[in-house]
Design a protein that fits this description.
The protein is of the alpha/beta class. It has helices at residues 17-21, 46-51, 60-69, 76-79, 90-95, 163-174, 194-205, 219-222, 229-235, 256-267, 286-298, 322-332, 387-392, and strands at residues 124-128, 131-135, 181-185, 212-217, 241-247, 272-277, 301-307, 343-347, 354-356, 362-364, 369-372, 378-381. Helix 7 (194-205) runs parallel beside helix 9 (229-235).
């Protein structure tokens, strides 16, 4: 049961004429035995989700309250992946709103990683000496239910940087020669037109001390059709190394269309990295996490970070514990290629920085060190001489 006493959002239901008749504004839909037409536009309202067969009509009212607080958007590419008859569907858990999001826990915060604390000018987050975030837009193609910037993104959130604000942000970068890397994020910067992206890159090229530009995006998986040759060309730089970091949380997101979109990026000479959030019910089991990491590598994307869930409001149902995350990381080590190993990280709440929190394989009493293998066996380091070597005097 959900917080309002109705069925959970992803509870299975019958796709029947009676079901459709109970949905507001559904009179135009055909009453057939297979009434679910292809989804051709982004779904943004609970009644649209119901018409698409993704939520039960009885949940529309409470989910309108959720949508009023936290933006909702599900692209056709993601909506078509959801199995509404599976109450544990991992794609649905990422994108379909749930009533439990209205339950804010005491340790949750509207700005859980301290963006505002480290924002000297609008659009810039300068937390580390050699790099800055440049948040050019707060619009996304989809809105994740676990987003740590959920209070800032979407129609009710912050807006795309105005020209004067963008000028000030770029002036901040230009005036600080210690800034080696600019990470373009938001929101999702690849929702911008190729023309605007090209204009932004031209201005960054003019800043000599910026050597690396990184784009953080979900677009290649959630809207792969928009990754055109024109968009890819707009990201390139004649003088800087440009990386594209893809946010993906489940192997099913890497559809043939998504892999083709990523190939267009990589084939253009732009290396790709993978970022994943550890999410309960999505990828918090060994099989799902291993399948995702392998799918990324097969797509020529190097897994970069596995993020511990942040204390964003209304996201407690999706967070795991650190101990659970460390145990999952152990399942990757040894049995899965080294190419598939992300760094498990925590953004310390309130903006104190990102740190690795993976499991340790070392124990020391101040002298000798004991090393645990990926399969749980323990070994001294340096290794103790064998009995035969000790008798022969060999070291």
């Amino acid at each position: 049961m959900d917080a309002a006493g109705g069925d959970a959002v992803t509870t299975p239901f019958l796709r029947s004429a009676a079901y459709i008749a109970a949905i507001p504004n559904s009179g135009h839909m055909p009453r057939t035995s297979n009434p679910w037409p292809p989804i051709t536009k982004t779904l943004r309202k609970p009644h649209e989700l119901a018409r698409a067969g993704l939520i039960a009509p009885g949940n529309i009212a409470v989910l309108e309250r959720v949508a009023a607080q936290y933006a909702v958007a599900i692209t056709p590419a993601m909506a078509e992946l959801i199995d509404p008859d599976d109450p544990a569907d991992p794609i649905a858990r990422q994108f379909l709103p749930q009533a439990v999001e209205l339950d804010m826990q005491p340790d949750e915060h509207a700005d859980p990683v301290g963006d505002h604390t480290h924002s000297p000018v609008e659009g810039i987050v300068h937390r580390y000496p050699d790099r800055v975030l440049l948040k050019v837009t707060h619009t996304c193609a989809v809105y994740c239910r676990f987003c740590f910037r959920r209070e800032m993104v979407g129609p009710q959130g912050l807006k795309t940087l105005a020209p004067k604000a963008l000028d000030a942000a770029l002036a901040y970068i230009a005036g600080r020669p210690e800034i080696w890397e600019v990470i373009i994020t938001g929101g999702d910067p690849l929702v911008l037109s190729p023309r605007r992206l090209r204009g932004l890159m031209d201005r960054l090229v003019a800043i000599d001390h910026v050597k690396v530009v990184r784009f953080h995006t979900r677009i290649p998986t959630v809207a792969p059709e928009t990754v055109t040759d024109e968009l890819v060309a707009a990201l390139k730089s004649p003088t800087q190394a440009v990386y594209v970091a893809l946010h993906a949380n489940h192997a099913r997101e890497l559809t043939p269309a998504a892999r083709a979109a990523c190939a267009r990026i990589v084939d253009a000479g732009l290396p790709m990295l993978g970022q994943t959030v550890l999410l309960r019910g999505v990828n918090d089991d060994p099989d799902s996490l291993q399948a995702l990491m392998r799918a990324l590598v097969e797509t020529r994307i190097k897994p970069y970070y596995l993020h511990q869930g942040d204390f964003a409001p209304g996201t407690g149902h999706l967070r795991t514990t650190i101990a659970e995350g460390q145990a999952l990381m152990r399942t990757l080590r040894g049995d899965v290629s080294g190419l598939c190993q992300p760094t498990y990280v925590l953004d310390i709440p309130e903006g104190h920085g990102k740190v690795p929190i993976g499991p340790s394989y070392l124990e020391s009493d101040g002298g000798d060190v004991c090393v645990e293998s990926p399969w749980g066996t323990r070994h001294a380091y340096p290794p103790k001489p064998s009995a035969a070597a000790a008798e022969s005097g060999d070291d």
